[in-house]
Amino acid sequence: MLGAIAGDVIGSVHEHLGTKSMDFELFPPGCRFTDDTVLTVAVADCLLNGSSYIDVFHEYFMAYPNAGYGYKFFRWARSGDRRPYNSWGNGAAMRVSAVGHAFDRLEDVLAHAASSADVTHNHPEGIKGAQATAVAVFLARQGESKRYIKDSIERMFGYDLSQVLEVLRPDYQFDVSCQGTVPPALIAFLGSSDFEDTVRKAISLGGDADTLACIAGAVAEAHYGGVPAHIESGTLAVLDDRLRTVLQRFRQRYPMGQANTGLEASRHRPR
């Protein structure tokens, strides 16, 4: 899940700028963690401790009230509401990457991704976006090929991942929906050569930059076997002690698996 956080931090300064270039400084002054990081860590916290998603989301909101949440989530968390609000927004997908690391069976990944989403994003598109992201991380972590990941996501969720980034980029616009964010983020990953290239490609779409890079970075970390040292250090330097501690605890419990081993999805060992 460090890859998701790195994507968020690097993408934070490109939010609403419509960046269409891959040539930019990775950690310029002003880069920060946003709600994508806060809620990604919150999901990891829930998985580590078996806590309620609702309680932990409310707790993290109170600790980081100015992280840049979407309006509906902000209103939900600030009011202490415990009812979902039927969102199809990309918030369900941006926060789910830890689920793809914590379970070794596809059915468990699907179930826990849905559980992490539907406390707020109980719209079918919100749940689908979370599941597709978590499954992509899971398959990448198991060493499946990009072709296998692409075919699996298209078959399971009906997303079209056949577009080429260079064709998609010119007309792509800011989109906060799961259905408008998850496929482009996965396309950025599928067309990448390494982790950094993935994040640069996702941001260069010119859309919801931090969330696109968060989703793409999560899958890229799992596929490429980690995050480059210069990006890891730049990302960790931005986090506070609380977020960094939960991240480190999660990484210790669920260490990065061996990338590109060619394991079939049906042969996962139970934890």
Question: What's the helix and strand layout?
Answer:
Elements: H1 2-11, H2 35-49, H3 53-63, H4 71-79, H5 91-94, H6 97-102, H7 106-118, H8 124-141, H9 146-157, H10 165-168, H11 178-190, H12 195-203, H13 209-224, H14 229-236, H15 241-253
- C-alpha Rg (nearest Å): 17 Å
Helix percent band: 55-70%
Q: How would the global form be characterised?
A: globular
Largest sheet: none
SSE sequence, one letter per element: HHHHHHHHHHHHHHH
Output the CATH topology: ADP-ribosylglycohydrolase fold
The first-level CATH class is given as: Mainly Alpha
Determine the N-to-C terminus distance. 18 Å
Structural class by secondary-structure content: mainly alpha
In DSSP terms (H or I, runs of 4 or more residues), the helix count works out at 15
The count of strands amounts to 0
In total, the number of domains comes to 1
Percent of residues in β-strands: under 5%
Q: Overall mean pLDDT score?
A: 94
Q: Can you identify the CATH superfamily?
A: ADP-ribosylation/Crystallin J1
Could you name the ranges where pLDDT drops below 50 across 5 or more consecutive residues? 258-271
What's the CATH architecture name? Orthogonal Bundle
Q: Your description of this structure?
A:
The chain is mostly helical. It has one domain (2-22, 32-251): ADP-ribosylation/Crystallin J1 (ADP-ribosylglycohydrolase fold). It is 59% helix and 0% strand. It contains 15 helices and no strands. The chain has helices at residues 2-11, 35-49, 53-63, 71-79, 91-94, 97-102, 106-118, 124-141, 146-157, 165-168, 178-190, 195-203, 209-224, 229-236, 241-253. Helix 1 packs across helix 14 and helix 11 (178-190) packs across helix 12 (195-203). The two termini are 18 Å apart. Mean pLDDT is 94; it is low at 258-271.
